[in-house]
């Protein structure tokens, strides 16, 4: 089968190639999936450079999440050949076939296509864990979402709106404002460039934000400490901006807010009952048609480099989906 393999780490994708590899064989309790769609996540890019906290042994098949059809499964298991499923694991998604534990798969909601299903898991699990489970999101609260044109940021905007919150979405580019408004219908959009606290204050009537969702870090995090309401929470999702910010502890003390680290996957592993509840909650919303993953473009897996470079250069709004083909 064809698979996208990271053979060596590099800053320019020179260690990545689409090559023929042996099709994986499943073991009891596992499912062989014919992959129909995979979605690109920022950790996928970071892992090609060795810059993500997870550092798989080389070589490895890239890709966190996928959707496809069951090709083989245990006769007494939860899935049958032909079932449409989606799921993910740490690596191995960017291939024509993937083997995954049955417990890590879910049925694709009725009426949802493979591309949309492949775009759900990582982004919405992170959004729900951060905003609801750890953030305590309530209807009517103000939520400031940074990096809102990325898959994780857009999912947070979409989820917060679905749950009745008021959303201020940020982007680093004036040129993406119209696309961002169309993608998730936030209550306001601002360009997060330099000082944006006054803009946030003006939008919220001086109230500032109950929750700040930050997958960017660096200067964005620094300014966000001025945007959190007393008693609010600043959710640390990642560091797509490159710099890991520091904070003096007197700032959250005086301003009365919490800084909360969000690692959705690790949270679910450490607290499996909570993880299952979180998954069932966002999956239920998706099945009801209340969540709307935004797909920027769909490309064949053969154009993987174009996809990775578009993500690296911040050229997308939402998710890029790749299709491995036959």
Automatic annotation (TrEMBL):
Residues 11-322 form the Enoyl reductase (ER) domain. Signal peptide: none annotated. InterPro entries: ADH-like_C (IPR013149), ADH-like_N (IPR013154), ER (IPR020843), GroES-like_sf (IPR011032), NAD(P)-bd_dom_sf (IPR036291), Zn-ADH-like_protein (IPR051397). GO terms for molecular function: oxidoreductase activity. It comes from the Bacteria. Pfam families: ADH_N, ADH_zinc_N. This is NADPH2:quinone reductase. The lineage of its organism: Bacteria, Pseudomonadati, Pseudomonadota, Alphaproteobacteria, Sphingomonadales.
């Amino acid at each position: 089968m064809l698979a996208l393999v990271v053979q060596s780490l590099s800053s320019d994708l020179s260690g990545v190639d689409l090559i023929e590899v042996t099709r994986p064989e499943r073991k009891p309790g596992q499912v062989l999936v014919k992959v129909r769609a995979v979605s690109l996540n920022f950790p996928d890019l970071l892992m090609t450079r060795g810059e993500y906290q997870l550092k798989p042994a080389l070589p490895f098949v890239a890709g966190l999440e996928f959707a496809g059809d069951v090709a083989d499964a245990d006769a007494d298991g939860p899935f049958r050949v032909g079932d449409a499923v989606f799921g993910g694991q740490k690596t191995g998604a960017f291939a024509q076939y993937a083997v995954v534990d049955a417990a890590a798969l879910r049925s694709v909601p009725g009426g949802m296509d493979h591309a949309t299903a492949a775009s759900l898991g990582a982004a919405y699990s992170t959004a729900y864990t951060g905003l609801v489970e750890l953030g305590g999101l309530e209807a009517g609260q103000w939520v400031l979402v940074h990096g809102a044109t990325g898959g994780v940021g857009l999912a947070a905007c979409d989820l917060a709106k679905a749950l009745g919150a008021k959303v201020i979405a940020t982007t680093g580019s004036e040129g993406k404002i119209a696309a961002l408004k169309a993608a998730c219908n936030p209550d306001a959009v601002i360009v997060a460039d330099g000082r944006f606290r006054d803009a946030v204050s003006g939008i919220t009537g001086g109230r500032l934000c109950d929750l700040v969702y930050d997958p960017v870090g660096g200067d964005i995090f620094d300014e966000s400490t001025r945007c959190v309401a007393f008693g609010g929470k600043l959710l640390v999702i990642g560091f797509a901006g490159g710099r890991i910010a520091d904070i003096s502890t007197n700032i959250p003390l005086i301003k009365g807010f919490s800084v909360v680290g969000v690692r959705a996957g690790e949270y679910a592993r450490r607290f499996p009952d909570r993880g299952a509840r979180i998954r069932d909650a966002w999956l239920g919303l998706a099945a009801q048609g209340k969540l709307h993953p935004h797909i920027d473009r769909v490309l064949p897996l053969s154009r993987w480099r174009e996809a990775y470079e578009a993500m690296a250069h911040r050229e997308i709004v939402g998710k890029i989906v790749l299709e491995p083909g036959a």
